[in-house]
Design goal:
This is AIPR protein. By secondary structure, the protein is of the alpha/beta class. The strands form four sheets. Strands 9, 10, 11, 12, 13, 14, 15 and 16 form an eight-stranded mixed sheet that branches. Strands 1-2-3-5-8-7 form a six-stranded mixed sheet. The protein starts with a helix and ends in a 19-residue tail after the last helix.
Length: 604
C-alpha cells in the first residue's frame, strides 16, 4: 500500500462510518470533519504518539483572538498535554499543503493554550463545560509541564511535520502536523522514519565510533557512546515513539526510574558507561565520516529506534525531570548501532524484530513481551477469519498487524463491486484492533480504571496479565471463547450506542467510553455467571429487555461519576480506583422484565 492508496482508504473509512451513523435514526447526523478527527485520534493513540486523546470540539473568542480545539490529551501524571485541531479538506485526491496553511490553523490552538495557561479562560467557562478540567490543568501546570504540543490533524500532505516552537509567557509550545504521510508511516509500522539526530548540532562534532562495514551483509554496524543529555532530549521530543513497539509495550505504564540507574546518575555519573549494559539502536541511515584528525565519527542518525535499552532511556529522562539539579554532562551510554541497508520492507522488519528479541533475551524482558504474545494474536486472527456470523454472510475482522484492514480492502476490493461486497462482509463497525480486544476483555474482567489509562497502556497491562495469569484465556483459543468474546464486544457497543443517541444527550454529556467500560465491568461482576453470551452471539445484538437493563445501569454509573467528580472530566475520574469502588458500591435496579439472555438460577 502506498501513500495515495492509504489516503483513499482513510477517506473511504470516514465515509463508511458516516454512512453507518447516518443510517441510525437514534444518532445525531454526523459531521464529516468530526468523524475524521475521531478516527485520526484513534490512530494517534494506537501509535503511542499521544496518551488516550479525547475528542472535544470547542471554539470561542477572547477579545479578537480566535480559540479552537478538536480534542486533547492529558498524561496520567499531568506532565504532558496535547491539543488537537483539525484541518479537514475531504478531497478525493491527496492535497499538498503549504507550511503557512498549517501554521495558520495551529494559531487558534496556540491561542487557546495561551489564554488557558495564563488564567484568562477558566473564569469565562460554565462549570459544566467539557474543557474546564483541561483549562484548569493548563493554568495550574503552565510552567511545570514537560511538554505542551499543538497537533494539527489533516487529510492533506504537509512539507514539514514539526514547526518552530511558539514562546508564550515563557512556555514553549511545540507545533506539529499529523498529516496523511505521517499517519501512513505510523499505521504501517514505520514511525522511525521521522526520528533523526544530528550530532554536529547536538554536541558540535561527530560522535566518535568504531564502524564495521561488511559488504556481504544487509546491515552496517557501529559501536559508540551517546551523551546522556542527547538521549534525554531525544526522549523528551519523541517520547515512547523513540522505542520499538514491543519495548514500548514492555514498559507499559512504567514512568518510574530504575533505582540502580538513579543512584549511578546522582553519585557516579562518570561510571555510567562502565556500569550500564547500553542500548541497541537500529536506523535507516547514518552519516559516517573520517575527521581531520583521522577519527571515524557519526554525524547523523536518521530513522532510528531503540530496540533494547528502553528502561535506561526512560529512567534517564524521568530522573532528570524529577531532579532539576541532576548533571548529565558526564553521563555516557554505550550503544550498538545497526544501520539497515536497502531491502524489502518485510525483510527489514523481520531483522528488526529478531534484533529486538535476541538483544533482550538476557534481560528481564520476557520473549513473550517481545512477541506481544504472538500465539494469542495469531489464534485470534485465524478464528476471526474462519468464523462467520450466524447469518452466514458476514464476519468480524481482527487487525493483528496495524493497517491490515486497509490492506485487505485494497487487495480484495479491486473493483467497486468487490469493495462493496467486502464492506458488507467485514464492515468497519466489525473491525477490531489489538487495543480494542484489550479494552473489551479487561472491562469485562473488572478493570475499567485500567482501561481508562488508554489504548496502549491498557494493552500492555493485558499482555502482562496473559503472562502472569495465563488462565484468563484458554491455552488454545477455541470457537466458543471467540464467540463469547465477540458477545462482550457487542455488549460494550450496545451501551455506547444507547448513551450516544440524540435522546440521551440530556443525561449523558461526556465520557461515553468510560461509562460503557464501567457498565460492562459491573455487568460482568454481577451477572457474568448467568449471562448467556452465546445468545448474544446468535442475535449479534442484545434483546430489548437486556438493552433496557444496560440503559438503567449506565444511568447509575453516569450518576456516580457526576456525584464523585464535582465537575471533573470523566476521562480522568475513570482512571482512579476510588471511582471504581464508588461504582461498585452503587445500587443497580433489577429489571422487571424477563431477560432472555439470563439463565434461570437453579434451586440448591
Amino acid at each position: 500500500m502506498n501513500l495515495h492508496e492509504f489516503h483513499a482508504e482513510f477517506r473511504n473509512h470516514v465515509q463508511s462510518v458516516m454512512a453507518e451513523r447516518a443510517s441510525n435514526p437514534d444518532e445525531t447526523f454526523p459531521q464529516e470533519e468530526l468523524v475524521f478527527a475521531e478516527l485520526a485520534m484513534d490512530d494517534v493513540s494506537t501509535a503511542g504518539i499521544s496518551e488516550a486523546p479525547e475528542v472535544c470540539h470547542w471554539e470561542g473568542t477572547i477579545r479578537n483572538a480566535k480559540l479552537r480545539i478538536s480534542g486533547f490529551s492529558i498524561s496520567a501524571d499531568d506532565t504532558r498535554i496535547d491539543l488537537f485541531l483539525t484541518h479537514y479538506l475531504g478531497t478525493e485526491h491527496l492535497t499538498q499543503l503549504r507550511d503557512s496553511d498549517v501554521a495558520g490553523v495551529a494559531k487558534s490552538a496556540v491561542q487557546f493554550a495561551a489564554n488557558a495557561g495564563t488564567g484568562k479562560l477558566s473564569g469565562r467557562l460554565d462549570p459544566t463545560s467539557p474543557i474546564l478540567e483541561l483549562v484548569e490543568t493548563l493554568e495550574r501546570r503552565w510552567h511545570d509541564l514537560d511538554q505542551l504540543r499543538v497537533i494539527v490533524l489533516t487529510d492533506g500532505q504537509t512539507k514539514s511535520k514539526h514547526f518552530t516552537p511558539r514562546d508564550v509567557e515563557g512556555r514553549l509550545i511545540q507545533v506539529e502536523a499529523m498529516d496523511m504521510e505521517r499517519l501512513f508511516r505510523h499505521t504501517t509500522g514505520k514511525p522511525r522514519d521521522e526520528i533523526a539526530v544530528s550530532f554536529e548540532q547536538a554536541i558540535g562534532r561527530p560522535l566518535p565510533c568504531v564502524h564495521v562495514a561488511d559488504p556481504g551483509a544487509d546491515y552496517d554496524y557501529a559501536l559508540t557512546a551517546i551523551p546522556g543529555e542527547v538521549l534525554r532530549s531525544l526522549y523528551e521530543r519523541f517520547n515512547t515513539t523513540l522505542l520499538e513497539a514491543n519495548v514500548r509495550s514492555f514498559l507499559g505504564t512504567r514512568k518510574k526510574v530504575n533505582a540502580g540507574i538513579a543512584t549511578t546518575l546522582e553519585e557516579e555519573p562518570g561510571h555510567f558507561l562502565a556500569y550500564n549494559n547500553g542500548l541497541v539502536i537500529v536506523c535507516d541511515e547514518a552519516g559516517i565520516s573520517r575527521g581531520a584528525d583521522g577519527q571515524v565519527g557519526i554525524s547523523l542518525l536518521k530513522g532510528l529506534q531503540i530496540v533494547n535499552g528502553g528502561q535506561t532511556t526512560s529512567s534517564i529522562y524521568f530522573a532528570s525531570r524529577d531532579n532539576k539539579d541532576l548533571d548529565l554532562s558526564h553521563v555516557m551510554i554505550p550503544a550498538k548501532i545497526v544501520i539497515l541497508r536497502e531491502g524489502d520492507d518485510q525483510g527489514r522488519e523481520t531483522l528488526i524484530s529478531r534484533i529486538s528479541q535476541y538483544a533482550n533475551s538476557q534481560t528481564a524482558v520476557k520473549t513473550s513481551d517481545l512477541s506481544a504474545n504472538r500465539t494469542f494474536h495469531v489464534q485470534l486472527e485465524k478464528l476471526a477469519n474462519d468464523t462467520w456470523c450466524p447469518d452466514g454472510t458476514g464476519r468480524w475482522f481482527y487487525e493483528r498487524a496495524a493497517g491490515a484492514y486497509a490492506v485487505a480492502m485494497l487487495r480484495d476490493g479491486r473493483t467497486k463491486a468487490q469493495k462493496t461486497r467486502l464492506q458488507e462482509v467485514i464492515p468497519t463497525r466489525r473491525k477490531l484492533t489489538k487495543n480494542d480486544i484489550a479494552k473489551y476483555h479487561e472491562s469485562w474482567r473488572g478493570l475499567p480504571h485500567q482501561v481508562a489509562l488508554g489504548g496502549e497502556k491498557n494493552f500492555a497491562a493485558f499482555m502482562s496479565a496473559l503472562d502472569d495469569t495465563p488462565e484468563i484465556v484458554p491455552a488454545a483459543l477455541d470457537v466458543t471463547w471467540y464467540k463469547e468474546m465477540i458477545a462482550k464486544v457487542i455488549l460494550f457497543k450496545a451501551i455506547e450506542k444507547q448513551i450516544k443517541a440524540k435522546e440521551a444527550k440530556d443525561t449523558f454529556k461526556q465520557g461515553y467510553v468510560n461509562v460503557a467500560s464501567y457498565t460492562v465491568a459491573i455487568l460482568g461482576q454481577r451477572l457474568g455467571d448467568r449471562l448467556d453470551l452465546m445468545q448474544i452471539w446468535q442475535r449479534q445484538d442484545t434483546s430489548g429487555p437486556l438493552s433496557r437493563l444496560l440503559w438503567n445501569w449506565s444511568c447509575v454509573v453516569n450518576a456516580v461519576f457526576t456525584r464523585v467528580g464535582a465537575g471533573a472530566q470523566f476521562s480522568e475520574l475513570a482512571k482512579r480506583s476510588a471511582t471504581w469502588d464508588a461504582v461498585q458500591a452503587a445500587q443497580y435496579p433489577d429489571n422487571a422484565e424477563m431477560i432472555p439472555e439470563l439463565r434461570v438460577l437453579q434451586d440448591a
